[in-house]
Specification:
Chain B: Keywords: Signal. Chain B: Pfam families: SoxY, SoxZ. Chain B: This is Thiosulfate oxidation carrier complex protein SoxZ. Chain B: It comes from Halomonas mongoliensis. The structure holds 2 protein chains of 2 kinds. By secondary structure, chain A is an all-alpha fold. Chain A is 69% helix and 2% strand. Chain A has 16 helices and 2 strands. The termini of chain A are far apart. Chain B is mainly beta. Chain B has a single domain, classed as Immunoglobulins (Immunoglobulin-like, Sandwich), CATH 2.60.40. Chain B is built from 3 helices and 16 strands. In chain B, strands 2-8-7-4-5-13-12-15-16-10 form a 10-stranded mixed beta sheet, covered by helices on one side. In chain B, strands 1-3-6-14-11-9 form a 6-stranded antiparallel beta sheet, with no helix packed on it. At the A-B interface, strand 1 and helix 7 of A face loops of B.
Amino acid sequence: MSHTELVAWSGLVIGLAFGATAQASGFCLLRGLNHSWTTGDSRKLRAFALAMAVALLGSQALAALGVLSLGGALYLPPSASWLAVPLGGALFGYGMVLANGCGARSLVLLGSGNLRSFVVLVCLGLSAAMTLSGLLAPLRVWLEGATTLALPARDLPGLLGVPAWLPALVLGGALIAWALASRDFRASPRDWLGGLVIGALVPAGWLATGVLGFDDFEPVRLATLTFIAPIADALQYAMLATGTRLGFGVSVVAGVLAGALVMALVRRDFAWQGFSGPGHMGRSMAGGALMGIGGVLALGCSIGQGLSGFSTLALPTFAALAGIAAGAWLGIKGPLTLSNSTST
Amino acid sequence: MPHPLLLRALSRRRLLIGAGLMALSPLGLSSAALADGPWQRLDAAGDLLRGTTPATEGLALELPHVSEDGSAVPLSVRFDASLAEGDHLAEIHLFATGNPYPEIASFHLSPEAGLPEISTRVRLNESQQVIAIARSHRGETFATARDVRITVSGCLMRGDDQGPEPLANPRVSLPERAAAGEPVEVRTLISHPMETGLREGAGGETLPRHIIERFTVTLNGEAAFTADLHQSVSANPYLRFHLSPTEDAEVVFEWQDDSGESARHEASISVS
């Protein structure tokens, strides 16, 4: 098996694990923020925080042990746009509220029979590809070019001038401490197990592309869990498979869908669902489109930046995460809340 | 002297005949129509063909139809037509018609270069046609062309990276053994910025041209494969090609850049 095939197969396995775990545990940043801000139930948000901590500690441990270098990751550019990254995050966060779930969540829901998510995913993939390389790409290039900023350092340890283990331990420890501080969370194995497994899949993805995909002559691009460009690539792959090589991202997307489907069937949780009306459909479509555009501008989604980007301690990640949180707040509690907001 | 009106009628008739022939050509005169390839508009190609009409079968270019990273587009060129006994494919030249300097690379193959199948990674700065022209030792010529579309880069926010250390870390994958007459695959990679001389640095100054110009592979001191590289070859030049040594050989790989520096890698292969 060539190293590229090995990477594609491991992407499928990681995707299956993600899909099954997320289906069973209801892992979702939006649900976490929504419950926490509206009902005060913070278990889902704590599960996400735990996943962040596990992703961070696992990835930094791999880097510290010299197993791989995270320097080639997309999240660590030498310069970034001070506008596109947080703005993209905000568009993504608001889109996530409109569509009732992020890209990864939509894949999981589609696997559980939710046809609304199919519409969200098609809109997301289409708008992401338009922003990456299509009609909106010149606008994106112009925006990024006009607002580009050379970063003082590539990651947080570089900025603070400390060794990487220090901020990793402090941030990871703080997140774990906060997550475990809740008795409700500790008493909900579904949530903490879900967070633990999904967090661990991030370093697993770095291992798949960085170690299994290592080849002196044709290295595979270092990547791990992320869903915006891969959903766009998966749509493209579905249409152009005979002329395209199957990459890590696309096989993760396929795995998530299949893993969620299997888990939904096993748990007898599979149910066909559709739209209640054109307003509902329009909202989902707009949400998908905003997530596609925003995710590309922010260099990642709630998983891509929230877990994978965060695990590298990249500086733009913090701006993207602040943007995502702000966008979600605008949609859930802020002035842009839509009246027919249906809670997950 | 014919009446001017008659002349006009004549020329019109000639035009009509011409148009008729042109309409027929895809069916009846296919070889002539195919010979009329895009390479005819390329001056450098004309010099290589020296008036011969290249065969359009036998030489194949492999490139992705659409590529989202124009800075490293994988390219393979392969020759699989049969040549006369004793003849071998001696040269392959690659051109990117839409680049500021169309030459990509020229490969010179000895009979010991075995299978004429070469891969590399090239820079294409816009959607364009890539042309390959090959010539056999006895002067038979072959040509082919492929369209490539380049989209805006998917990962654009790569800034002005510090280039790699020039000529550092040559890497070669060469099997230790080969069967006589069986071509073995060789892969090579070396760190080099391949600075085009067209790019501006952070301060707006033009970065001087700095590229590897020549890559040579010798078997027991005899040149088996050489490559002349130009600015359109991607940074950290990668080359995959073949060797079919007839006896045990010391293989020397040498990269020379335009600043006079060079890097060497030595290996040996035993032939059974």
